[in-house]
Design brief:
155 residues, alpha/beta, Glutaredoxin, 6 helices
């Protein structure tokens, strides 16, 4: 029995060391997006496009917090946000879902959540909007905003 406990403690110490002691990793935010060789399109496959028909199931019924970007195809700032959203989706995988909604094609959704400027971001928790913001920003700025709104310590 003593050997089992010692083995467990050793495994715990090793896994803690391998995961690092970064506070972000304790809340699911990892540093994968900051690794050398991380491409500008990293994580973009994790950011699905949703619409009025799928919004209820993907956002409002989600048990995880959800960040929704309202964008337009012809918005330069929205295009610039694509890799930043991908990085955020990659780094927060399993703790935050990230989706995009075409604001022109889904005007009723943009209006319902009072999106006045693009790109517009609405953060949801337990199916309710927590807060919103708009404008082009870096992945770090967006990540810090999400963490602040969800009461997660910002590193």
């Amino acid at each position: 029995m003593k050997e089992l406990i010692i083995g467990f403690l050793i495994a715990l110490v090793i896994s803690s060391y391998m995961n690092g002691s970064n506070i972000d990793s304790q809340f699911g935010w990892n540093q994968a997006a900051n690794l050398p060789g991380a491409g500008s399109n990293q994580g973009t496959e994790l950011v699905d496009d949703i619409n009025e028909g799928t919004f209820q199931g993907e956002v409002l019924d989600s048990h995880e917090p959800v960040l929704v970007e309202f964008y337009s195809q012809d918005c330069v700032h929205c295009t610039n946000m694509k890799p930043e959203l991908g990085k955020l989706a990659q780094e927060s995988q399993g703790y935050l879902k990230v989706y995009k909604v075409d604001a022109k094609a889904n005007g009723a959704l943009a209006e319902r959540y009072e999106v006045m400027a693009l790109p517009g971001f609405v953060l949801f928790s337990k199916g309710k909007p927590v807060n919103s913001t708009s404008g082009e920003m870096s992945k770090q700025e967006l990540s810090n905003w999400v963490k602040k709104e969800l009461d997660i310590p910002v590193s």
